[in-house]
Amino acid sequence: MPTPLLQIDKLTKSFGDLVLFSDISFGIAEGDKIGLIAPNGSGKTTLLNILSGKEPYESGRVVFRNDIRLAYLEQSPVFDPEMTVLETCFSTDSETVKLIARYEEMISSGNQKGLDELLVHMDLHNAWDYEQRVKQILTQLKITDFHQKTGELSGGQVKRVALANVLISEPELLIMDEPTNHLDLEMVEWLEEHLTRNNISLLMVTHDRYFLDRVCNQILEIDEKRLFSYKGNYSYYLEKRDERVMAQNAETEKARNLLRKELDWMRRQPQARATKAKSRIDAFYSLEEKAQQKKDEQNIRLAAKGSYIGKKIFEAKDVSKRFGDVRITEKFNYIFTRYEKMGIVGNNGSGKSTFVKMLLGVEEPDSGGFDIGETVNFGYYSQDGLQFNEQTKVIDVVQAIAEVIDLGDGHRLTASQFLQHFLFPPEKQHNYVYKLSGGEKRRLYLCTVLIKNPNFLVLDEPTNDLDILTLNILEEYLAGFKGCLIVVSHDRYFMDKVVDHLLVFHGNAQIQDFPGNYTQYREWKAVEDKKESSETKISVRQQETPPHKKRPEENKKLSFKEKQEFEALEQQIEQLETEKDRISEELSSGNLSTEELMNKSNRLSELIDIIDEKTMRWLELSDRDQ
Fold first, then answer.
1. Residue of 241, 236, 221, 180 lying closest to 37 (CA atoms)
2. Residue 266 sits in the same domain as residue 278
3. Are residues 44 and 189 both part of a single domain?
4. What 8-state DSSP symbol labels residue 483?
5. What letter would DSSP give residue 305?
6. What is the spatial distance between Cα 400 and Cα 403, in angstroms, rounded to a whole number?
7. Distance between CA atoms of residues 370 and 116, nearest Å
8. Taking the complete model, does pTM exceed 0.90, yes or no?
9. pLDDT digits over 61-84, tens only?
10. 251 lies in the same domain as 331
11. At which of 152, 169, 186 does a domain end?
12. Beta strand segments in 324-426, E
């Protein structure tokens, strides 16, 4: 049975009159990888802060296993701005770092009493490899200047240093708040693999649904201040949640029918008999409460017609842009067509946001330019565009832009109705902005962009800090959007649902136009990478093979038996290469015992010899098959 690491019993948290969650209970055991899902403002981050000791709570119990190694990745981490990246990573409160600090102190002071015992402990904790592991993980997260001060880093770089910090501390329980924010797609996939491969228990909040699906084996959902648990990944959660909501709605509908009968009875109830029918009156109020619980999943299709857009959208003509030695675009040309839905992907720093800013006229190209159609009306959602007067009411923020939005076909929505579609109920609309959570402010910002009724939406990282329900509503809105769309995003699931082709920024002004969504691109790229790798290996072996004089019989065409051998060799070499790659990964994982390490190393040597021998034979037969 898995060892319990954390137990939460009847936990309640509120801010004044606002109750976030009430009497919730759950546990985390070894091997659990749990995703926490809830609408913005429901207390996800607050719950994580409670578990990390940063927030108090009203009632309940939070009990950790004694001496547990716990790490917490905050949504917006803060470091000493004067410390370097490496110093920051060595400032963690881990046993390994303490051992290294004691060792350095002993060596510098010359007092080596107890050094032998310390060296034994350092060996046990693999302390000698610690700095190398730190640098390896930082490099994977594209942090390469280890001596740069954290005060000079961007917000995204700080988040990645914080992520490296929690990973290298090798905790038994890792709590993470939006770990994929500020990671490019390559890093997200690396983190997925890292968390899946390592025996680490997780509790995390993330909007990345592919990440949830591939990493988690349990989903917790906070809904209407209560907690629901699903033993499975995100796909399983969707299926079971739907069953729960349907059952709840069926029960509620039954309650409504009974309520009608009860209401009729209550109206006919003589006042004098009230005391005799107390139990039935109590039952009426219980039914009334149940009848009001019907789930409204905001399934009304919201598809704004957008203002008219002509055939000419925009044309990029020889657009060139660079910052110093870094090239963003070089004589880039592209004609954007009507109703096109384009996704832009690429690693951080490859120029995606700069490209968007040049299109919108926020950034000037060095040469060339964009010829934009006269009817184009941009709506721009940017990563850094979140600016509100915190003392303004939510409804006033939206009404200041537009009182109504035209859905076409004679249908119009008021600002209040539009806000309700994006999960701002009437009572929330009359709250002041400062009372909103970070995710709710993002959702409000999105409403201010959409209610302008643009015909060309440009969304730069729209999914950061939005909850999954809001993302579903936005995806539905975009599916019915009668206009053009450009999305810059690291959210693979979101991209797959809303775009029909990609611009892939490879860096150094290399931009690829791919006719498909992100998953199709990754599948295509995997095939291309494998083909390229195979060709490189064969080319290297051809260069390493000394030329030899062919015997006369070698020039003969292949016999039937040799053709069968030739075809079999291709499959065998591919299988052996796969096994070799797998063993190489296992050897570098750090999870093998000494005995396993030796066995795997021996097998790797055997495989290299066998692959060389079979490749030589394949080349020999290949020459004669021409």
1. 221
2. yes
3. yes
4. S
5. -
6. 7
7. 69
8. no
9. 999 999 898 999 998 888 999 988
10. no
11. 169
12. 326-336, 341-346, 367-372, 378-381, 404-408, 411-414
